[in-house]
Design brief:
This protein is an alpha/beta fold. It has a single domain, classed as 3-Layer(aba) Sandwich (Rossmann fold), CATH 3.40.50. Helices cover 36% and strands 15% of the residues. It contains 5 helices and 5 strands; from the N terminus they run αβαβαβαββα. The strands form 2 sheets. Strands 3-4-5 form a 3-stranded parallel β-sheet, sandwiched between helices. The mean pLDDT is 83.
């Protein structure tokens, strides 16, 4: 489904994930942009128009750098993300997409894809 959104919206995917399997990156049609250190990762994040990630160091780095970042959160996320919010008081450039039910990511991913189709 992400591949269809990518083709329809005409955007490029880049993998920032360390130790990602090359086959997984190729299946997404993404460019392998793994980083050896935080400085390199920050440089690469700064070059992107949008970062889409789960709650990892990449989400916090993109938010701290003021880059647009969409963060997918599990239903039982850390208390710092608060409840029933789609924004973050910690990172004004961050948008939150939440799991509605533990273990079920499809609705949150559908929300990301729908927003991505209209994002500029």
């Amino acid at each position: 489904m992400l591949i269809r959104a990518r083709e329809a919206a005409g955007f490029d995917l880049f993998s920032l994930q360390l130790d990602a399997a090359p086959a997984e990156i190729a299946a997404l049609g993404a460019t392998d942009w793994r980083s050896a250190n935080v400085y390199q990762l920050a440089t690469r994040v700064m070059a992107l128009d949008l970062v889409i990630t789960v709650d990892t160091m990449v989400a916090h780095l993109a938010g701290a750098l003021g880059r647009p970042v969409w963060t997918l959160l599990p239903a039982d996320c850390d208390w710092r993300w608060m409840e029933r919010r789609s924004d973050s008081p910690w990172y004004p450039s961050m948008r939150l997409f939440r799991q509605r039910q533990a273990g079920e990511w499809q609705e949150a991913l559908d929300d990301v894809i729908a927003e991505l189709m209209h994002w500029q």
